[in-house]
């Protein structure tokens, strides 16, 4: 049995309710109060964890039931919380919104049930006063049936408290009192409508933390306002209601002690922390480098180029010819190389921006990248090898997630991509020598043999 410290999930009825900003404010308050907090994000989003980690200085990671499964999520949660005072998990979309159109699987609710984690709901009260009460009642009393941490079915919303957002301070105490009286749910805190530019939805998920001016000042302002009404005692009482979790920590045999060069800068920074940890557990030594700023590839035995926003840095990437030449030379020399989404685009011959300007890229893989008018692909995918590839045997599958406004003239056909629900499928992934690249952000622990083969090639 592994005893897990207090934990809580911050959810909302739907996107745009303010849960990201409130989560950041809570984390900021905890840090100011001297608590050693750990944050997580429900789902595959790697940008919200960057806000937690880069802006607030709080370690963060993902808890994704599709990518990792229940055991993997519990393992990440327990190991990530080791030695910490509390974990704060930011929910995804609406509380009951899962992977499919009407599915609960993968939702914030599903995560709460499977990890025995209580939730507090952020409710946007804009345009409402007493009407907010029946809305909260509906969510709190909705008896969805979910599988708990022991595999048993239970009917429990897991909602244990409320935070009111965009509510007038004149009515907030009375509404809070009424919610507690009628629903038996404590109001942990409330926020008035704040003037000025905040972290609206047009930023989150689309713009990096570094690109929002004075982002920490914004979060501090919200945290200071929330602190006026925030009930720390009640918040911790809810968090301590989380049940003890257990998991089997399987020993991983090291595969290599060689070095893997990992691209990390403004253009390439989308990585699942579980992926990097698995590489290290398998013995790889990670050496970070910048395709924008560094003139040469560091000495390494393998290369990993993750996702990001290369389309925002085309000029700098193209003009760094020595780096492009080094990566092409390494690939042609047989160095094992994995690239996904932004990294896949960087390996192409060229990239054409919206204005029609063409920029030379690394020239490792044939084809040209280009911007599209809408999301080309979005959501979870299963990546299945059509035939034997360098790292996936025929029929083998690894799970991932796609989110990109770009496409290429040659996406490859080494794998079949399928959605978890429905029958939609398409081809993708290019393979050349020891290079394996495509659009999906792969989650290595969903098929450890994939990354094990990569390290064996090294």
Q: Tell me, briefly, the overall form.
A: globular
What does the radius of gyration come to? 23 Å
Task: Calculate the terminal CA-CA distance, rounded to whole Å.
Answer: 37 Å
The number of helical segments is 13
Model regions low in confidence, pLDDT < 50 over at least 5 residues: 201-206
Task: Give the strand line-up of the largest sheet.
Answer: 3-2-4-1-5-8-9
Strand % is: 25-35%
Descriptive overview:
By secondary structure, this protein is of the alpha/beta class. Helices cover 29% and strands 26% of the residues. It is built from 13 helices and 26 strands. Strands 3-2-4-1-5-8-9 form a seven-stranded parallel β-sheet, sandwiched between helices. A six-stranded mixed β-sheet has the order 12-10-13-15-25-24. The protein is globular. The two termini are 37 Å apart. 47% of the residues are buried.
Write the layout of secondary structure elements.
Elements: E1 7-11, H1 19-32, E2 37-42, H2 47-55, E3 60-63, H3 65-81, E4 86-90, H4 108-114, E5 119-124, H5 132-141, E6 145-147, E7 153-155, E8 159-165, H6 172-183, E9 187-190, H7 215-227, H8 232-239, E10 259-263, E11 268-270, H9 273-281, E12 285-289, E13 302-305, E14 307-308, H10 314-319, H11 321-332, E15 337-340, H12 342-346, E16 348-352, E17 358-360, E18 365-371, E19 377-385, E20 397-404, E21 406-408, E22 415-418, E23 425-428, E24 430-432, E25 435-438, E26 441-442, H13 448-457
Parallel strand pairs: 1-4, 1-5, 2-3, 2-4, 5-8, 8-9, 10-12, 10-13, 13-15, 15-25, 16-18
Antiparallel strand pairs: 6-7, 11-14, 16-17, 18-21, 19-20, 19-22, 20-26, 22-23, 24-25
Helix pairs in contact: 1-7
């Amino acid at each position: 049995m592994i005893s897990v410290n207090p934990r809580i999930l911050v959810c909302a009825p739907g996107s745009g309710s303010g849960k990201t900003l409130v989560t950041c404010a809570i984390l900021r308050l905890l840090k100011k109060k001297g608590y050693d907090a750990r944050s997580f994000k429900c789902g595959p989003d790697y940008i919200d964890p960057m806000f937690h980690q880069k802006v607030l200085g709080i370690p963060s990671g993902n808890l994704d039931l599709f990518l990792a499964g229940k055991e993997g999520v519990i393992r990440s949660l327990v190991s990530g919380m080791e030695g910490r005072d509390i974990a704060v998990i930011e929910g995804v979309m609406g509380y009951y919104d899962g992977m499919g159109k009407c599915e609960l699987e993968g939702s914030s609710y599903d995560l709460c049930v499977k990890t025995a984690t209580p939730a507090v709901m952020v409710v946007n009260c804009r345009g409402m006063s007493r009407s907010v009460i029946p809305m909260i009642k509906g969510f709190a009393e909705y008896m969805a049936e979910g599988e708990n941490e022991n595999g048993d079915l239970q009917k429990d919303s897991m909602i244990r408290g409320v935070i009111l957002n965009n509510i007038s301070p004149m009515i907030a105490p009375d509404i809070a009192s009424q919610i507690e009286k009628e629903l038996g749910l404590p109001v942990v805190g409330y926020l008035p409508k704040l003037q000025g530019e905040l972290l609206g939805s047009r930023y989150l998920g689309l713009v990096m933390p570094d690109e929002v001016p004075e982002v920490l000042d914004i979060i501090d302002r919200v945290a200071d306002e929330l602190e006026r009404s925030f009930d720390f005692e009640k918040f911790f009482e809810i968090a301590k209601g989380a049940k003890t979790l257990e998991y089997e920590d399987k020993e991983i045999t090291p595969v290599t002690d060689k070095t893997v060069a990992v691209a990390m800068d403004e253009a390439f920074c989308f990585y699942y922390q579980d992926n990097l940890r698995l590489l290290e557990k398998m013995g790889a030594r990670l050496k970070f480098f910048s395709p924008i700023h560094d003139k040469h590839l560091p000495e390494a035995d393998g290369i990993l180029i993750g996702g990001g926003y290369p389309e925002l840095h085309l000029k700098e990437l193209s003009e760094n010819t020595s780096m492009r030449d080094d990566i092409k030379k390494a690939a042609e020399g047989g160095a094992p190389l994995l690239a996904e989404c932004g990294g896949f685009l960087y390996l192409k011959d060229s990239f054409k921006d919206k204005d029609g300007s063409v920029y030379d890229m690394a020239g490792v893989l044939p084809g040209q990248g280009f911007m599209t008018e809408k999301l080309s692909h979005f959501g979870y995918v299963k990546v299945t090898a059509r035939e034997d590839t360098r790292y996936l045997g025929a029929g083998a599958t690894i799970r991932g997630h796609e989110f990109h406004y770009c496409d290429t003239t040659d996406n490859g056909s080494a794998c079949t991509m399928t959605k978890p629900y429905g029958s939609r499928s398409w081809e993708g992934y290019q393979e050349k020598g020891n290079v394996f690249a495509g659009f999906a952000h792969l989650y290595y622990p969903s098929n450890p043999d994939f990354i094990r083969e990569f390290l064996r090639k090294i």
